[in-house]
């Protein structure tokens, strides 16, 4: 076989990932995690959009709040994508791929009031928490404890381990972290 044919054959070869998951589990779990990942990237970008464009008398507080939340959302993406690969799936490849899978709606408006920004992000975060629960249920259905743990804690590694997402999230689970941010947004929208 020539080098070119050999290279082409390797590109088409399936990922050889040892797993004890049933054959139908990896595609279903990967699909759920990829949709979740697309939503996280969409929410991350919307959060940064609002972070960059927020204005008004509460600028500093909102600017910092949105920056912190954006960092927390982004911190979870790598662990989720790596989990998809670890169980033998493929993950997001482009912005276009994200656009095809995302359920979080974009906001391209030229101007959004700060309270409307926070209200929209609050609703998007509620939607994301519901999506996390749906993905968790799929993991449970297939007895994928590691993926379920990733959703619960933000890591499949022990807390504080090198590269641990949970360490980056200061020990908070993904759901708990987003729920806390959502609570702060509700307080801001109701208190202002």
Mean pLDDT rating: 84
The helix-and-strand class reads mainly alpha
**Low-confidence region ranges:** 157-172
The biggest sheet amounts to:
none
Helix-residue proportion: 55-70%
Cα Rg: 19 Å
Number of helices: 8
Ends distance: 70 Å
Overall 3D form: elongated
Structural features:
mainly alpha; elongated
What does it look like?
This protein is an all-alpha fold and 192 residues long. Helix content is 69%, strand content 0%. The chain has helices at residues 3-12, 25-53, 59-86, 95-101, 114-141, 145-153, 165-168, 174-191. The longest helix has 29 residues, at 25-53. The termini are far apart. Mean pLDDT is 84; it is low at 157-172.
Quick rundown:
This protein has 192 residues and is mostly helical.
Spell out the blueprint of helices and strands.
Blueprint: H1 3-12, H2 25-53, H3 59-86, H4 95-101, H5 114-141, H6 145-153, H7 165-168, H8 174-191
Helix pairs in contact: 2-3, 2-4, 2-5, 3-8, 5-6, 5-8
């Amino acid at each position: 076989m020539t080098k070119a044919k050999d290279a082409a054959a390797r590109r088409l070869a399936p990922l050889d990932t040892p797993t004890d998951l049933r054959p139908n589990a990896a595609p279903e779990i990967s699909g759920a995690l990829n949709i979740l990942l697309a939503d996280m990237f969409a929410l991350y970008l919307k959060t940064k959009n609002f972070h960059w464009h927020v204005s008004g008398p509460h600028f500093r507080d909102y600017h910092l709040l949105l920056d912190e939340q954006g960092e927390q959302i982004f911190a979870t993406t790598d662990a989720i994508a790596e989990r998809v690969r670890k169980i033998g799936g493929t993950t997001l490849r482009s912005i276009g791929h994200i656009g095809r899978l995302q359920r979080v709606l974009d906001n391209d408006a030229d101007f959004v009031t700060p309270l409307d920004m926070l209200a929209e992000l609050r609703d998007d975060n509620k939607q994301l928490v519901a999506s996390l629960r749906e993905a968790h249920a799929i993991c449970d259905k297939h007895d994928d404890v590691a993926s379920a743990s990733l959703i619960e804690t933000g890591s499949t590694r022990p807390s504080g381990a090198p590269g641990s997402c949970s360490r980056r999230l200061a020990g908070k689970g993904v759901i708990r972290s987003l729920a806390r941010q959502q609570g702060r947004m509700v307080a801001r929208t109701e208190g202002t």
